[in-house]
Write a structure and sequence with these properties.
By secondary structure, this protein is of the alpha+beta class. The protein has helices at about 5-10, 25-35, 55-60, 70, 80-115, 130-135, 165; strands at about 45-50, 75-80, 120, 140-150. The protein contains seven helices and four strands; from the N terminus they run ααβααβαβαβα. The protein starts with a helix and ends with a helix.
């Protein structure tokens, strides 16, 4: 698929088959997210790979009981490394640039997974402190997004999009 086909193909999938993501697919996703732009090229983020069923279940609970997180064969947890960015960019790095670094990397991972024929769903609704404890993230890192990845067990209907006129100001 070319980039524009990938963007159109991406859907939020909340049901996954009991089939593992191949190691070469995961490696391609990880290699792709490493190419994401970042403020000052600091790459102020950490990505945690979760395959353990018990931990995925705990993440689902921390995410307002979004049980599909536990169903996916793997979940990537994206954390902003606020301290790394703050060292160079101070408050703006801590509060904004590290967040942007993590979300851009998550977007690259989501599009890479889609290009590989895999399904994802961006999860941003969760208790940050609880996810941090589950993932044992060190101080200075903060969970920003979770991305379950797997083979779709559903085909969601297209969702409506706002018009360009509503979103774009010239």
């Amino acid at each position: 698929m070319d980039l524009f086909e990938v963007i159109k193909a991406r859907k939020s999938v909340r049901a996954y088959q009991a089939k593992d993501v191949a190691l070469d697919q995961l490696n391609t996703i990880l290699s792709t997210l490493l190419q994401a732009p970042s403020a000052g090229n600091l790459q102020a983020l950490k990505v945690y790979i979760v395959r353990d069923a018990k931990r995925k279940l705990a993440l689902a609970g921390a995410a307002l009981n979004q049980e599909f997180l536990a169903q996916a064969p793997l979940v990537l947890v994206f954390c902003a490394d606020r301290e790394r960015s703050a060292n160079r960019y101070h408050k703006r790095g801590e509060q904004l640039y590290s967040l942007q670094d993590a979300t851009i990397a998550a977007t690259y991972a989501q599009l890479a997974a889609t290009a590989l024929g895999l399904a994802t769903c961006w999860v941003g609704a969760f208790n940050e402190d609880e996810v941090g404890k589950i993932m044992e993230v060190p101080p200075g890192q903060h969970p920003i997004a979770m991305l379950p990845i797997g083979h779709a067990a559903e085909v969601p209907a297209p969702t409506p999009r706002r018009s360009r006129g509503e979103l774009v100001v010239e």
